[in-house]
Amino acid sequence: MDTRATVLPDAGRRAQSTRSRRGPRESVISRTVAMVIMLVFTLYFLIPIWWLLVASTKNRADLFTTNPLWFAEPALWQNITSLLSYDGGIYVRWIVNSVAYAGIGALVATIVSGMCGYALAKYRFRGRELMFNVILGGVLVPATALALPLFLLFSQVQLTNTFWAVFLPSIVSPFGVYLARVFAEASVPEELLEASRLDGAGEVRTFFTVSIRLMVPALITIFLFQFVGIWNNFFLPLIMLRSEELFPVTYGLYAWNSTINQFPELRGFVLIGALLSIIPLIITFLLLQRYWRTGLGTGALK
Known about the structure:
Blueprint: H1 3-22, H2 28-56, H3 76-85, H4 90-122, H5 128-140, H6 143-156, H7 163-170, H8 174-187, H9 190-198, H10 203-214, H11 216-231, H12 235-240, H13 249-258, H14 266-277, H15 279-301
Helix pairs in contact: 2-14, 3-14, 4-7, 4-8, 4-11, 5-8, 8-11, 9-10, 11-15, 13-14
């Protein structure tokens, strides 16, 4: 009997079994194509930011006479000081306005969305699904379509050109309610709520002491989405506001950019102002990223 004929098929079967456990091999071509595509899109998104950073370090003379993607004589600090002192420091006022609109608005929207989503997920009442479907329909409505009705509504109560004209619409987030409901259904067990009620805790206390801790990943996600959305909101302030002191930074930079032909010195202020305006977004994301990841890991373990 030929032992080689027996050993070779067994070795072949073992090799085939090992390959099947490892899964199909990734093609070198597909990996290369994927890397090239990711590199192209990465450059597509990073080159404008790099250009903005480089342009913000140049004075007005070097802005159009030097390499647009490389540094010239550094003038970043002079540009920043000139920006912050221009027109009585109006840019600082715009930054403070944006922080108030986005920070407080996102915080209130997160709390409201979390409570609404939790109620829709854990309570049974008549019309619950109809209410949720209406909220879900609100996700599909673009914000620009609501700007004119909101303006007419706020005009009736004489709140246009006020802080509330931008702040109040910002605390409503249909997507936040949807996300909070989906996450509450999956992460908040009914047994835990029953145990809390048996211990004598009311519904509000149960939510703020028990449920909200389990919903942290969803709440952080809602806050980030809402903060970025409010910070970048342009059309609503354009409709609602007329006083320069109430402008958020996005609308203020647009107003400056619209008058560059009359005031050429504003071109540099728009560039450095745009660069500084993205710093709060980066800081917010970096500060909340740790809690976001921790919450997601805790939710996965549960």
